Structure formats: C-alpha cells, structure tokens
Amino acid sequence: MRVNRQRLMTEIEKMASFTDAPPPAVTRVLYTPTDIAARAYLKSLCMEAGLKVREDALGNLFARWEGAEEGLGGVGTGSHIDAIPFAGAYDGVVGVLGGLEAIRSLKESGFTPRRPIELLMFTSEEPTCFGVGCLGSRALSGAWNAEQLAKLRDAEGKSLDEARAESGFSGPLESVRLPEGYYSAFVELHIEQGPLLEREDIPIGLVTAIAAPASLRVCLSGQGGHAGAVLMPDRRDALLAGAEIALEVERAASSSGALDTVGTTGIFNVHPGAINSIPSRVELGIDIRDVDGERRDRVVAQVIGAIQAICERRGIGYEIDTLNADPPALSGEAVLAALEASAQELGLAYKRMASRAYHDSLFMARICPTAMLFIPCKNGWSHRPDEYAAPEHIEQGVRVLARTLARLAG
Ligand code: GLV
Ligand code: MN
Ligand code: MN
Prior knowledge:
The protein is of the alpha+beta class and 410 residues long. Helices cover 35% and strands 25% of the residues. It has two domains: 5-211 and 328-409, Aminopeptidase (3-Layer(aba) Sandwich), CATH 3.40.630.10; 213-325, Alpha-Beta Plaits, CATH 3.30.70.360. The two termini are 16 Å apart. The protein binds glyoxylic acid and manganese (II) ion (2 copies).
C-alpha cells in the first residue's frame, strides 16, 4: 500500500487557500462563502476518488466506498474543515484529507473491504458560529435532538434553520441522526494540539479518552455613563465584574487539585466599547474542561457561585447560560487494538494518551466503538496561524489510519 504524500500535501495547501484571513492564517467559519467553497473542493476530490457523496440537512458530508457484503455497519473516519478565526492549516483538515488519502491508498492497493468505509466531514466542530462545538456530530449521534438544535442562534440572532437554508442545506433536523448500527467503528486522525509527542519524539499517539468540555455564556448588565462625570462610588461597571469573573475562572481551574483542569475566558465583548463610556453590558464566553467530568462540574459550580457573589456585591445583573456540559468519552478497546497493531506492523513508536482538546469523536463514541490517533505538531501549537505538522508525520498517521481501516473493515 502506498500513501501519496505529495498529493496529500498539495491538497492540504490548497485547502488552506480557502480562508477569510490573510495566509498563513486560516479563518473558515461555518456556512460562509469560504466554507462553502472549501466544501465544494472536498466534494470534488471525493468524487474523483470514486466515492459516493451525500450531505445531510446540516451539511455533514459523507463519502462512501461500498463494502463487498451488504447490510453491514460501516467503518467511519474523518474530522472537520471549519477553522476558528486566525487558526492554522492542519486542525481537522489532516483527519479529513488524510482520511481521504488513506481510502485512496487502500483502493489503489487493490484492497476490497467487506464493510463500507466512509469518510465524514463534520459540520462545525468549532463553536465559532453558534457557540457550541461538534454541532454535526452532536446531531448525528443524537446527543442533541432537533428541538435543541432548532433553538440555536448566532451572534446576529439568526437561527440554525435560517443559516443552513441560506447555504443550501434543508430537510428536517430529525433526519440528521444516524440509524442504529450505521457504523461499526469510527477512527479520527488529528494533530495532537499539545507538545507531548514532539517532546518525547514519538510519532503516534493513541487516544484513550477525550476531556469533557463545558461552555458558559455570561451576560452582565450594569449602568453606562460618562467616563468623566460619574463618580467612582456611584458606578456599576459591567466590565469590572467581568474582569473579576475571568480571574475567578483562572483561580477555580488552577486550584482543582489536578493539572487536567483548564479554564479559559475566550470571549469578552464590551458594550458600548468607547474609551469615554462606562461599560454597561458585557458578554463573556467561558470554557472549562477536564478528563474527569465530576471534577469539571465542581469547578463550573464554583465559577457560577462566584459570578452570583461578584454581581451581587457590584450591583450588576447577570444571566448565565450553560451552552453545553458534555461528559468525557472513553475510546473503544477494539479500535485502539486495531490502531496499535497497525502502528506495530509499521514499526512506529506510539504512546497511549488523553485528548485535552475535544473532537467529533467525543460524540461518535456514543454510537459506536471509537478511537483517535494523534500525530505531533510543532511546539504543540494549534488554533494559531503557525500551526504546523511535518509531512512525514502526516504520512505516518495516514499509513496507520489506512491499515486500521482495512483491519476494521475486514
Ligand atoms: C476544539 O477545537 C477544541 O476547542 O478543543
Ligand atoms: Mn480546533
Ligand atoms: Mn480539530
């Protein structure tokens, strides 16, 4: 079996050219014209590879290679191509185009799968547009039902239904959920997004568990006014309450007793945003994660308690919206074993590790045995324009993936 590294690297480079930020930064937000153009490019590659392409009502894209035997659950692989503002070229893309390359190399080797093998490109793994991550896999797995999905609104108040219809994705949201037994296994290739593999000079990570993320949207309302005229004792400054809350997020995550707990206030929108005006309204986006779901929940509760206390002391109104609080996922042993056997066959060193970032596999693990494989990325950098994975590491990941798909598809 031969992986065509040159072909794959050319496609990764081409995919990076679909961006709304100046290169090397990649910004590719759900349902923007740039996202739609990137999807069309991916579709053309899948069709060229002889795969049968379909899209569901959310825009999840499936590219299928039928198996020799009818009626068997398929083996899925894939990831996402959407990218947060000012991200890089490899997050998600390596799993989608690398998955395609693994399928092509199996086809070109003359292999015939018993089960279908299917490439999946998930809609909106990133939470950029509607505030929740893993939108596509959340819906595919039934973790969220149509009613929960229909409530989603973007920053301009546009509903998911309006947004998807504008991009040509229609049909009932109920139809997105996959039928039981649709997949017999799922495996996702991804860059590590952390420094461990590179630091230890190990080319392959076998992901045993995915950390549990929770996201809060906090809206604070104080009293605006003239920055010169309102005396300090009379102020109810929403930004200052937000600043205290952000520090509390840091304190709560850092004092959980485990380095696995992390907390980030990544959104801090200030209204009206004028230097001579007291901030009257602030919106915070808070992300708290842990591999231990209960410990994560204790930290979330501590932060919510602090928000109440801070706002009461400062006379600030608050609304707290828990956008998601997902449980962690454990990998399927059979898929891990297939990955391990494939890495061994290729003579590649590997280690078992947890994923601190979340991935669509967090939700795929709810419907079929699922595991991920990681490859190193430079300095562990991700979600930034200088994100980088070396071609030889990408090729090694694809080789392990291809053999794993072959093992699982029989
Ligand atoms: C996914 O991009 C994450 O935030 O972990
Ligand atoms: Mn990401
Ligand atoms: Mn990703």
